[in-house]
Structure formats: C-alpha cells, structure tokens
C-alpha cells in the first residue's frame, strides 16, 4: 500500500475512518451495491441516507474507494441501487490490519472478520471449555460453497450491532447464535454463488428488539416469513436478485400493521420471478417508500396498494411487463414521487391521478405508449422527467396545466451494469 493512501486514511476525520474500516466487512474483489453501505451506516450511526452517500463520496475523493454509476443519477431521490462501490484488495487488507491493531484478542475487537473455508473453523471455535463470548460490535462471517450450515458452533454476541454474512453455498441455514444479538441493528446477507441460495432458519431473527434494517442479496426465501418474524423495530427491507417461493396465492397475515409497525421502506430490485406484490405489503400502513425495480415479470399491482395512506414515494422503474396501475392509487394522498420509467408497455395512468395534490414529480422515461387522463390537468407545480417522445404527450397539456416543468433526459446505457452479475 502506497504512502499516499496511508496519508489519506490518517487525514480522515474520525467518522470517515470508522466508515472506511467498515468496508472490510465485505468480501475482497467485489463490487458492492451502494445501498448496502448506506443501509449499514444509516443503522449504525443514525444518519440520513444522503449523509451516508456523502461519506461514500468523501472516501472516493481520498482515493480509498471507487464509485461506479450504472447509468442513472437519481441520488436526489434517495435511490442508490444504481451505484456500485469498489475497494481495492490492498485497501481492504489495510482496513483489516487496522482493525486487528485495536486489540490482540479477537474476543475484544470492535470488528471481527471470520472466514471459514471447507468447514475448517479457527482453533478458538473448536471444543471451547466455556461458552464463547464475542464482544465485537460488527461481525462479518464468510463461507465458501462447500460450507455446511449444520457445522455452526454456538457463541454469545451481546454487543453486535451489525452482521454481514457472505455465503456461496446453495443452501444456508442462519446460525442460531443470531438470536443472542439483542443489540443487532442491521443484517446484510450476500450470496456470491451463481444461483439464489435457499435461506432457512429465519426464525432466529424473530423479535430482535433493535433490528432496523434487513438486506438480502441473491437468496431464495418465503416472502410470508417476513411479517411472521415480529420485527416491530424494522424500518427498511431490501431484497436484491432474490427468488420468492410463495409469490402467488399466499395466505393473509393478521395484524401486519402491528408486527411491522415501524417499517417505512421496502426495496425490491432484480427479483425476476415476482409477478405480483404479496398482499401483506398493502397492510404495512407505516410505509413511506416502496421501490420495485427491474422486476420484468411484474405485470400488475394489487388493488389494495391504495391502502398505503402514508406512502410518499412509489418507484416502479424498469418493470417492462407492467401494463397499468390500479385505480386505487388515487387514494395515496401523501404521494410525492411516482416513477414508472422504463415501463414501455404501460397503457395509461390512473383515471383520477389528478386527485394526488401532493404529487411533485413523475418520472416516466420510455413511457411513450402511456395515455394521460384528463385529470392530470389538476396537478400543479409538477415536474415530469422523460425522454423526447414521452415529452410530446405532456407538451400538449402544458398550456392547460399550472407550472408544469418537463425535463427531457436521454436513455443511458452503462456497461458497469455487467459487474452486478
């Protein structure tokens, strides 16, 4: 590692040093979705997402990581899944080395990286004479494709606030010791294998009193398990490239508004077998942001979506099979932002969309087949982002609308997208 990088680290303020060291929780030579880092820091340090985004930009300005955009620049809307983070291996090793300097005892370090290859555990895990107590606040556990979840050992982790699980096997049962992590605020599970890993034993997450954020990447889960966990403190759920076992014909869950009473944000991205949203999502009345993007089989939204009375942002971008939106959307009285960009099969907007008097922005790039109802004339101070062909639909109505702003943007293509897979 060159002296310039060391000087860059030494020059960082304390909060950015901590953020840099947190990067070591993720595997080497991987491109991390920016939302993963932002979820981690938001939960750990109680900061708004845009502040965490500033942390990433500050670290990049010190050459301690690289930011790779995937073609869009919509960070002002709080959407960071179109941005990748890359850290050089030598910088990760430096971060791990700094973490190890904090204490000679692995049981007392603030950050613990545990790597398990071929079911071979570190010596301190084997045949302990007394229960293993780990005092770390952040733990990363990485396993290879030969790992057997039946091999988990028991340990007590009373102070853990962040858990990152890097896995590669096709089946993965969460370790029971997660249930001891009563201070856990954020759990991030990333599968690095080729296909979604079947994730089981989610019940160990049940009733963790401080768990605020869950992020699953490339795993297969039963969607109905989420509301059954009783996570009353959960604020954000993120699902990326996941496979859902029970997408259709699921049973209703009682009292979702109670069991998920703090949930404000759901992100579902690149989940290719999602045809319809599960009904229980419409019962999460605390929800403020719902983002379903790059889900190519999603063809409709449930009518009950109109029950989300606190929803402020509805993002449905790049859902190429989406034909229409339910008329019940006109009941979303707090909606400020609607994104249907990339929905080139979208036939029309809801008939009474003009009732949404708080709506400030619509993004509808490549929606040139979409019919605009007369009620859109009632929308005031509206900003529409779209490409040239869709803009023609709105320009015809501009003389009849109050303070309509049309921002034309070209469709962008970026090969950094390939690094996601």
Written account of the structure:
- One of its GO terms (biological process) is defense response.
- Keywords: Plant defense, Repeat.
- This is Disease resistance R13L4/SHOC-2-like LRR domain-containing protein.
- With 421 residues, this protein is α/β, with parallel strands linked by helices.
- Helix content is 17%, strand content 21%.
- It has 8 helices and 22 strands.
- It has helices spanning 3-10, 14-22, 34-45, 49-61, 89-101, 225-228, 256-259, 388-395, and strands at residues 31-33, 66-69, 83-86, 111-116, 132-133, 138-143, 155-156, 162-167, 171-173, 186-191, 197-200, 213-217, 219-221, 236-240, 243-244, 265-269, 289-293, 313-315, 337-339, 361-363, 383-386, 405-408.
- Strands 4-6-8-10-12-14-16-17-18-19-20-21-22 form a 13-stranded parallel beta sheet, sandwiched between helices. Strands 9-11-13-15 form a 4-stranded parallel beta sheet, with no helix packed on it.
- α3 (34-45) crosses α4 (49-61).
- It starts with a helix and ends in a 13-residue tail after the last strand.
Sheet/helix structural class: alpha/beta
What amount of the residues lies in strands? 15-25%
Uncertain ranges: none
**What global shape is seen?**
globular
Biggest beta sheet attributes: 13 strands, parallel
Q: What is the topology, as strand order, of the major beta sheet?
A: 4-6-8-10-12-14-16-17-18-19-20-21-22
Number of strands: 22
Number of helices: 8
Averaged pLDDT, please?
89
> What is the gyration radius calculated from CA atoms?
23 Å
Return the string of H and E elements.
Answer: HHEHHEEHEEEEEEEEEEHEEHEEEEEEHE
Helix content range of the residues, please?
10-25%
Cα-to-Cα separation, first versus last residue = 28 Å
Pfam family, one: LRR_14
Domain Disease resistance R13L4/SHOC-2-like LRR: 292-384
Keywords: Plant defense, Repeat
GO biological process, one term: defense response
